[in-house]
Amino acid sequence: MPTDREDSYKDCAGLLSGGEIMEGERTDMLPSAITFIDNRLCYTSQRCHKIPEALVKLYGSRVHSLDLSYNELVSLKGLERFSFLRELVLDNNHLADSIVFPYLPHLHTLSLNKNQNTI
User: Fold this and answer.
1) For residues 17 and 2, which has the higher predicted lDDT (pLDDT)?
2) How many domains, in total, are found in the chain?
3) CATH number of the CATH domain containing 26
4) C-alpha distances out from residue 35 to 17, 78, 98, Å
5) Which residue range forms the structural domain that includes residue 8?
6) pLDDT one-digit tens code per residue, 66-115
7) Which positions ≥6 away from 21 have C-beta within 8 Å?
């Protein structure tokens, strides 16, 4: 039986517009940088400016804990599709005070250390 990590490599091989996986299709993220274990998703240190659409499509409905630290995020577009999110770590990004957070009814832990905010 494949592990979650093996599944993440297979899943990230590619996406069709309908969310189906197609091997060899290009995505907007580096599959080897993904760790998905026990509903915890980490995609750190990838210098991305937005949440990769492939992450949203593949994992949004399954993730309880999301770590996007050490990227260059300036937008949280797509975060609303992580509907079961309980923990969110966004440390060391480029998020400003003007950033708008979507309604995340299950969220109880949020970390925003070392961003461009003054909160």
Assistant:
1) 2
2) 1
3) 3.80.10.10
4) 23, 19, 29
5) 1-119
6) 999 999 999 999 999 999 999 999 999 999 999 999 999 999 999 999 99
7) 10, 11, 13, 14, 15
